[in-house]
Amino acid sequence: xxxxxxxxxxxxxxxxEQGIGLEHVSLGPAPTGFLIRGTIIxxxxxxxxGVFYRISCDEAxxxxxxxxxxxxxxxxxxxxxxQGHWHEAGGRPLDDLDGAIDIDLAxxxxxxxxxxxxxxxxxxxxxxxxxxxxxxxxxxxxxSDHQIYTCLTAGSLYRYEAAxxxxxxxxxxxxxxxxxxxxxxxxRISVDIS
Length: 194
What we know:
Strand content: over 45%
Number of domains: 1
InterPro entries: Glycolipid-bd_prot_put (IPR009467)
Structural class: mainly beta
Mean pLDDT: 94
Radius of gyration: 16 Å
Helix content: under 10%
Protein name: Transcriptional regulator
Organism: Rhodopseudomonas julia
Shape: globular
Distance between the termini: 37 Å
């Protein structure tokens, strides 16, 4: 199986290959799983954005909740039963998201880590089509998106494919399953602040 080491508390950063932007993530163990806090600034279609996100996962890397706040004032607070059913924090069900276990945020290299760590794919193994809760930063409306992951080299190289075949990329990852390079989209940069 393509398992990863126990995740230590750590930080990571990515820059977009084109344009100006940055994603900074702090993540690590929490009492009931893992907690990820991140900030993304960038632009899409000439429109700048800034968001802060908080993702809570259980010990198996299934997403429990997403809180997303934009500098524009928009926000999302959604919860999962970790079996593919979602609802707003106030309890209203989000049936359009049924079947999704993972979150995918526009402008984020980090969110690929969620299915990569959760699936523990063996070399040559394919996930099949996965439903994702995808949040584009222009509409700020969570939608269901479909993706496929294949383990090319256990613990170090994965192929991401949009299920509609509109995009694919080979993603090298580090010992924690964090993307090192996302060809044409993002590249990892140092967090060294010494």
